Amino acid sequence: VVSDGPVVVLAGGTGGAKLARGMLDVVGDDLTVVANTGDDIEIYGAYVSPDPDLITFWLADMIDSRGWGLKDDTFHVMDGLREIGVDVWFNLGDRDLAIGIERARRLDAGERLTDAHAAITSALGIGARVLPMSDRPVRTRVHAAGRWWPFQEFMIRQRAEGEVLDVDFRGRRAAAPTDEVMAAIRTARAIVIGPSNPVISIGPILALEGILDAIRASQAPVVAVSPLVRGEAVKGPTEAFMRWAGHPLSAAGIAAAYDGLLDGLVADEPAPPLPVLETNVLMDDAQSRRALAERALEFALSLN
Amino acid sequence: VVSDGPVVVLAGGTGGAKLARGMLDVVGDDLTVVANTGDDIEIYGAYVSPDPDLITFWLADMIDSRGWGLKDDTFHVMDGLREIGVDVWFNLGDRDLAIGIERARRLDAGERLTDAHAAITSALGIGARVLPMSDRPVRTRVHAAGRWWPFQEFMIRQRAEGEVLDVDFRGRRAAAPTDEVMAAIRTARAIVIGPSNPVISIGPILALEGILDAIRASQAPVVAVSPLVRGEAVKGPTEAFMRWAGHPLSAAGIAAAYDGLLDGLVADEPAPPLPVLETNVLMDDAQSRRALAERALEFALSLN
Questions:
Q1: How many contiguous H segments (helices) and E segments (strands) does chain A have?
Q2: To probe the interface with B, which of A41, A42, A43, A44 has the most B CB atoms within 10 Å?
Q3: φ, ψ of residue A201 in degrees (nearest 5)
Q4: What residues in A contact B73, CB-CB < 8 Å?
């Protein structure tokens, strides 16, 4: 049964954002992205949502070539902070900061995170939906090098160094998925898990109370796109987190990380007994992003 | 009795800041400025102290030629806010914002406003002291055009238009002057009230519980520099506020606004029976700022 509901992409960082951008070419405003908010951080008076913003900047074709932040953004506030002696460990462009400041203002005024982010995507001219996974705080923390780190600090200050001993999504029990997320999953035409780190990028989304049941109850086929290319992560510290989770760095490992949730996997190697669409999962230009999105969607729909 | 204590300048906006800059040339780090915080505003996730910052930027020779903000500052965050649909009524440069962001961070971490501002003046290389009048919030509000306005909104959104029907320094009863302000007044060599609006720039300082008694009890001579040149305010809406307070726009009116507090006045016309140093009070270059500060201080010391 193929519904005409949204194509739902679950996304964390860059891999998921690129796939979402490709999917936008394929299904237009029928795209709904559910974005990880476990990396959100309140800093500089702003509420910064790294993953929802990364996805949003990709969808608006405003992502900078450095791989994060807004195209051609300046960094004058960060310069100003350094000039008065602040240790600026978390770098944020001026226009990027403006987005986080406005989001914080809306939250302070009582808006839900969902609505605050919708106002931003709308202002940037995006018709598709980018849904924060929850309106309540979930904070990814990593136990490594003798302490617990908030995720951004682990990635930036600790340069993701040290064996990962534990991972925690603080607040997840009190943080339900939003009504918008649940409705998107319930009515989805297909659910595509982006090529993001299964443990720390997609993990926080799947850790929310009730979301696994909702995905299983949905009529939609569920496929994941592997973040691995020839057994290596394209970007980020996937290996250390997969090792902690006890999964090999392979298509089979990715499938295992999603623990029976998938109807199929898009990867560059088989992962029996799961149906796998074997294809190149690299997305280094607009054409390959669109092509991968299209093939992943067709594959998903073929599984229904 | 001439002590070797600080020269204390009470200052609001530009006039007081210019006099303070001149006084810095005369007495160096013996200068202590007590700054009005009634115009402070929390906006953009920052804690902005317009008067303490204006004074600080003047002392650091970092004031921009537009008359406020930091020299050669950019406005990219404001541009970014406008680009996502925010009505930016309060303009703030990027480096200016950085200062307000860092001040907010320090306040959130439990620091006193006095210490937060001291960290900023110190980072900017200022040896003299710029003391916020209180560590507790005082907010100047203006009743005009049918409503009460927070001061900055009255000045910017309402363009200071409309008859001033009332003025209120909200919070003043709970906002004691800081120990640093009281100590500076107690040990002052001289107290010089800058050429600022007596009602809304100096008024909030003098409205703090106990400060008038402290000034009267101090051994220091107290002089004010008139903000009027040939019966007109050099800058800002002094006339409307003086009219509300029932004082003419003249040296005698300025003297009356300070209600018996002054030992002398520096102005361009007499104000009998008060001793007046008749001189040009315009400060349009570094030389005239220094000269006026020097003459005001000599005059004050001559009255002791």
A1: 12, 14
A2: A44
A3: -100, -45
A4: 76
CB A100 within 8 A of CB A77: no
- Closest-CA residue of A relative to B87 is A102
Cα(B97)–Cα(A76) distance, integer angstroms: 10
**Among A45, A81, A119, whose Cβ lies nearest the Cβ of B44?**
A45
Inter-CA distances, A259 with A26, A159, A262, A263, Å: 28, 29, 8, 11
Supply the ipTM of this predicted assembly.
Answer: 0.91
Q: Is the minimum CB–CB distance between A95 and chain B shorter than 8 Å?
A: yes
> Which single residue is written with the structure tokens 């921009």?
B64
**pTM score of the predicted model:** 0.93
Confidence of residue B3 (pLDDT cuts 50, 70, 90): low
pLDDT at A1 over 50: no
Q: Is the backbone of residue B25 left (phi > 0), alpha (psi -120 to 50) or beta?
A: alpha
A214-267: pLDDT as tens digits: 999 999 999 999 999 999 988 778 999 999 999 999 999 999 999 999 999 999
Asked if the C-beta of A87 comes within 8 angstroms of chain B's C-beta atoms, the answer is: no
Cβ distance of B105 and A80 shorter than 8 Å: no
Kindly provide the b/e burial profile for residues B22-47, where b requires at least 16 CB atoms within 10 angstroms of the residue's own CB: bbbebbeebbbbbbbbbbbbebbbbb
Which chain A residues in 169-228 lie under 8 Å from chain B, judged by CB atoms?
none
Summarised one tens digit per residue, pLDDT across range B37-71 is 999 999 999 999 999 999 999 999 999 999 999 99
Instruction: Determine the Cα–Cα distance for residues A80 and A83; give it in Å rounded to an integer.
Output: 5
